């Protein structure tokens, strides 16, 4: 499948930013929390800040394509640091702040980063402990940490350096931006490392400016929109949203504190928000669990309202408008129930965007019944997070839409998805062999995903090629759809790992969401008070089995989960079970819990 229209791209992200500042200097660019209140800046103000910081980087000796790393949670300073690096001609290397010191050292050493923006003293301490392993690292610039006047500078110190540099060379930043071409390196983002050591993905400026132009060509966002951005900017998904904003010009509210999302949505009232499936699963699970526990009249009203909403939503997807009686029912359902769900997300959401993993069709349908369409997209770090996205006028749950304008998608004989287009990476940093394995001379990138295209060119991803498992009976099982279905149907579910490779039936390891589990335990008078004891309670086991029975009823016989174990803790990044982007490291988990998995096959023949 190919989308062949031509897009007009800026030559670089730095130029894109400068053009945005020039086009709408007095419009709101960003809003962000300061203490307990929100403040905002215009594009002109943001431009002044970025220019001064970029000049500071130039004063420190940053040259074309030099790597500048950022180890911080999502916040306005992250955005400024990234744009300043870009406008100085450098290339941003991203680091998850949750990463272990050893992992940070690997990324900074491999990328040869010369400067690091570190959020606070915890990040600085990690860097100090690994300093000998990072010979290229010259300086640390901290947002909230403690400067030492030598190796560690404060953000204000960088501003002072930049201001002095601009006095001596007023056009220094403009000259740097003018020197950047489409093939200059813009970012070096390291893969999450689910199957081995992280690889540095080289993404030149043309990747990001293409994504921006492609998003604008869809016509679904305008300058009147307001984005709420909490996603990790160290992930390509977050970077994509940052660039799309520059292209279109809408304002963005920035705050990466996950525990503030619900509170912030009520204050900010955005028109759209993006996130991984887990955030939508948690919203769905929280509301469904609360209603289930209340029971009685309210539960019946909730079920009726969502039934009406779902019937109308499905009809409209099929091109049918509801009858007059059904419209009356919908108005009542909306007033009593559905509008209150939307109000939890601020009440102004036009649509939501899901990416980075497969979204359960059940969760997507639930949101749609409530009047909020989730547009599911598809892409990898190697494709600058963007390759396909569902169109609002043609949504099909379970599919990730057709390719973005200018991108081609094809399916190999074994079902693997290949992508070609301007968003595809230059290659892996200092790994020509690994690059050749996935990127052929004609520009086709082997994604490692398995999927199919329908007759209208819409892509459906079934699983990761390496995650497919084959039972001893020769049947293939795709774990991800089963795991996604479980999390959609079980309000307590956090993680699930389906295990069946070489076995004669499928089993699963399950972890539960601590907050949801605690709420359920209180409602059902489970005496235990800590997670491990609650997870081991027979009543909890019976409830999870009930959810699993519903999952199994929707699967082929050979896919059904015959047995499961609930772990006494959730999976974690610290134990190496999850990547910094919260993806399960299957091989690590299976190796760690091999005896537990084996116990589910004792005596099996």
Question: Any chance you could write out the topology, listing elements then pairs?
Answer:
Layout: H1 13-23, E1 28-34, E2 37-42, H2 43-59, E3 67-71, H3 76-87, E4 91-95, H4 101-111, E5 115-118, H5 121-129, E6 139-142, E7 152-154, H6 155-168, H7 172-178, E8 185-190, E9 200-204, H8 205-218, E10 227-229, H9 236-248, E11 252-254, H10 261-268, E12 272-275, H11 277-294, H12 296-317, H13 324-343, E13 351-354, H14 361-369, E14 373-378, E15 388-389, E16 408-411, E17 416-420, E18 427-428, H15 432-438, E19 445-453, E20 459-464, E21 469-470, E22 476-477, H16 479-489, E23 493-499, E24 506-512, H17 514-523, H18 531-536, H19 538-552, E25 561-566, H20 586-592, H21 594-599
Parallel strand pairs: 1-11, 3-4, 3-5, 4-8, 5-6, 6-7, 10-11, 10-12, 12-13, 13-14, 24-25
Antiparallel strand pairs: 1-2, 8-9, 9-18, 14-15, 16-17, 17-19, 19-20, 21-22, 23-24
Helix pairs in contact: 1-2, 1-9, 2-3, 2-6, 4-5, 8-9, 11-12, 12-13, 12-14, 16-19
């Amino acid at each position: 499948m190919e989308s062949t229209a031509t897009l007009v791209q800026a030559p670089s992200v730095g130029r894109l930013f400068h053009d945005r500042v020039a086009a709408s200097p007095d419009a709101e660019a960003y809003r962000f929390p300061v203490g307990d209140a929100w403040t905002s800046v215009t594009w002109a103000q943001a431009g002044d800040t970025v220019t001064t910081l970029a000049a500071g980087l130039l004063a420190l000796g940053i040259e074309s394509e030099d790597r500048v790393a950022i180890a911080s949670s999502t916040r306005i300073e992250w955005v400024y640091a990234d744009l300043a690096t870009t406008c100085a001609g450098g290339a941003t290397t991203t680091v998850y702040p949750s990463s272990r010191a050893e992992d940070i050292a690997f990324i900074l050493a491999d990328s040869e980063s010369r400067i690091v923006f570190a959020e606070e003293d915890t990040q600085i301490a990690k860097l100090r402990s690994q300093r000998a392993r990072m010979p290229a690292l010259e300086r640390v610039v901290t947002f909230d940490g403690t400067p030492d006047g030598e190796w560690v500078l404060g953000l204000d110190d960088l501003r002072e350096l930049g201001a002095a540099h601009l006095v001596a060379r007023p056009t220094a930043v403009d000259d740097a931006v003018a020197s950047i071409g489409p093939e200059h390196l813009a970012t070096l983002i390291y893969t999450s490392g689910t199957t081995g050591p992280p690889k540095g993905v080289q993404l030149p400026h043309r990747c990001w400016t293409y994504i921006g132009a492609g998003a604008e060509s869809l016509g679904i966002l305008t300058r009147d929109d307001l984005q709420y951005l909490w996603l990790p900017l160290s992930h390509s998904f977050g970077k994509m949203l940052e660039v799309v904003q520059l292209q279109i010009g809408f304002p963005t509210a920035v705050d990466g504190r996950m525990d503030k999302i619900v509170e912030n949505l009520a204050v900010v009232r955005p028109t759209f928000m993006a996130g991984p499936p887990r955030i939508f699963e948690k919203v769905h699970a929280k509301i469904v669990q609360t209603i289930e526990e209340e029971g009685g009249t309210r539960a019946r009203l909730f079920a009726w309202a969502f039934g009406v909403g779902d019937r109308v939503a499905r009809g409209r997807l099929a091109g049918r408008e509801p009858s007059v009686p059904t419209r009356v029912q919908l108005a009542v359902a909306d007033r009593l129930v559905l509008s209150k769900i939307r109000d939890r997300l601020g009440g102004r959401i036009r649509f939501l965007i899901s990416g980075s993993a497969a979204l359960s069709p059940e969760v997507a349908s639930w949101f749609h019944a409530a009047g909020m369409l989730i547009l599911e997209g598809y892409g990898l770090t190697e494709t600058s997070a963007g390759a396909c996205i569902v169109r609002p006028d043609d949504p099909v749950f379970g599919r990730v839409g057709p390719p973005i304008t200018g991108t081609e998608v094809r399916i190999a004989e074994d079902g693997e998805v290949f992508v070609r287009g301007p968003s595809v990476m230059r290659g892996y940093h200092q790994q020509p062999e690994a690059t050749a394995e996935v990127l052929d001379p004609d520009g086709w990138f082997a994604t490692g995903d398995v999927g199919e295209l329908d007759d209208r060119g819409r892509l459906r991803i079934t699983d990761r090629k390496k995650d497919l498992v084959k039972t001893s009976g020769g049947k293939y099982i795709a774990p991800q759809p089963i795991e996604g279905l479980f999390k959609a149907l079980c309000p307590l579910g956090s993680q699930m790992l389906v295990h069946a490779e070489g076995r004669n039936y499928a089993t699963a390891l399950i972890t539960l969401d601590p907050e949801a589990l605690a709420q359920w335990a209180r409602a059902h008078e489970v005496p235990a008070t800590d997670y491990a004891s609650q997870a081991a309670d027979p009543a909890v086991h019976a409830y999870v089995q009930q959810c699993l029975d519903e999952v199994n009823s929707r699967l082929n016989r050979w896919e059904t989960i015959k047995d499961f174990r609930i772990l006494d803790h959730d999976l974690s990044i610290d134990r190496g079970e999850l990547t910094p982007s919260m993806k399960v490291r299957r091989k690590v988990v299976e190796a760690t819990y091999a005896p537990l998995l084996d116990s589910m096959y004792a005596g099996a023949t």
